[in-house]
Design a protein that fits this description.
Blueprint: H1 18-21, H2 53-56, H3 60-66, E1 71-75, E2 80-82, E3 86-87, E4 90-94, E5 98-104, E6 110-116, E7 121-122, H4 124-127, E8 132-133, E9 136-141, E10 143-149, H5 150-159, H6 161-187, H7 190-205, E11 209-210, H8 214-221, H9 225-237, E12 241-244, E13 247-250, H10 253-259, H11 263-278, H12 292-301
Antiparallel strand pairs: 1-10, 2-9, 3-8, 4-7, 4-10, 5-6, 5-9, 11-13, 12-13
The chain binds zinc ion.
Length: 315
């Protein structure tokens, strides 16, 4: 039986239990484990360098310790990763595609409160020690993810100091951005909100073409379809974007940003600040006292851990 609230997914390999073994980190941050040295990692489905930016920002030793617990899985459109008010069994580190966090507003409607792409993860309640999702998390644009069992996440946060700081830093980002989106929804016009959403989605997926329909955008933004159609028609006429059946391409990002409210820039700046922290510029202190910033700079210079910070100015 699949965990309640989560879809079934074929397990690509058998994971060792972190409760039994602990995480072995060659850098020595989590000494005292019964096992030392690197575990044997199954080669099938093993990601050499994750596209997820939280994982790719980790020092090589911690990433290696996590690898046996990361299960590649596909995310088909409309797949529900977590149902609302249902037990959560996994955290999903998004590698490609988009996941919406949806809040129910009446018996039939739910509105997006948070958008997750390769910069983040689905499953913050697990990171905070919870086990039930207050919201539904649905794949909007298909892609892939690396999923990790809740117990493994908790063990890794206990044993891997940089991973722990990274998870908490992401929670801080999510809190800041959900509150900004809440303020935006109450204060700004739908044209500005739509521009903000499209810019954020483009940042999250990393390309200009978004397979989105007017229906999807209307549901996510909590407005009527006709309202979205009217806004898109204006953007299309001004060559800011082009639309075809079920497909939307951003042509002029600079103009789209000028049409958005300030919320987009505030959110993008907050995301950039997080990525700078995670990649060692002003890195937060860690509980083991090891200079991870220096380790990462050294690793980057030697090419052993190339960060994947986007050249684009936003998340
Ligand atoms: Zn706004």
């Amino acid at each position: 039986m699949t965990p309640a609230g989560e879809p079934s997914s074929p397990a690509p390999h058998r994971r060792p239990s972190p409760q039994r073994h602990g995480f072995a980190v060659s850098a020595g941050c989590s000494g005292g484990h019964p096992e030392s040295g690197r575990r044997e990692v199954p080669s099938m489905g093993r990601p050499d360098q994750p596209r997820n930016r939280l994982l790719s920002s980790l020092p090589p030793a911690e990433l290696d310790a996590l690898r046996p617990c990361l299960e590649p899985c596909s995310m088909k459109p409309r797949r529900v990763l977590h149902h609302d008010r249902a037990p959560m069994e996994h955290v999903y580190f998004v590698e490609s595609g988009l996941v919406s966090v949806l809040a129910q507003i009446d018996e039939r409607k739910a509105v997006e409160v948070w958008l997750i792409g390769r910069e983040g993860l689905s499953g913050i309640p697990i990171v905070l020690g919870g086990s039930v999702s207050p919201h539904r998390r649905v794949v909007q644009l298909g892609g892939t993810a690396l999923r990790m069992a809740a117990a493994d996440v908790h063990a890794a946060m206990r044993d891997l100091p940089v991973f722990s700081v990274t998870m908490l830093r992401y929670v801080q980002l999510a809190l800041a951005q959900t509150s900004q989106i809440g303020a935006c929804n109450g204060a700004h016009a739908i044209r500005q909100r739509l521009a903000r959403w499209l810019l954020t989605a483009q940042d999250r997926v990393g390309h200009d073409v978004l397979p989105l329909t007017h229906d999807m955008l209307a549901r996510l933004l909590g407005v009527r379809r006709a309202t979205i159609t009217e806004c898109i028609a204006v953007l299309d006429a001004e060559r800011v974007l082009s639309t075809r059946r079920g497909r939307l391409e951003i042509l002029d990002r600079e103009r789209l940003e000028s049409m958005s409210c300030l919320c987009y820039r505030i959110m993008a700046n907050e995301h950039d600040r997080m990525m700078r922290d995670l990649h060692g510029i002003g890195a937060p202190p860690t509980i083991c006292g090891h200079d991870h910033a220096a380790s990462r700079r050294e690793a980057t210079e030697t090419g052993s851990n190339t960060p994947t910070v986007s050249a684009s100015p936003a998340p």
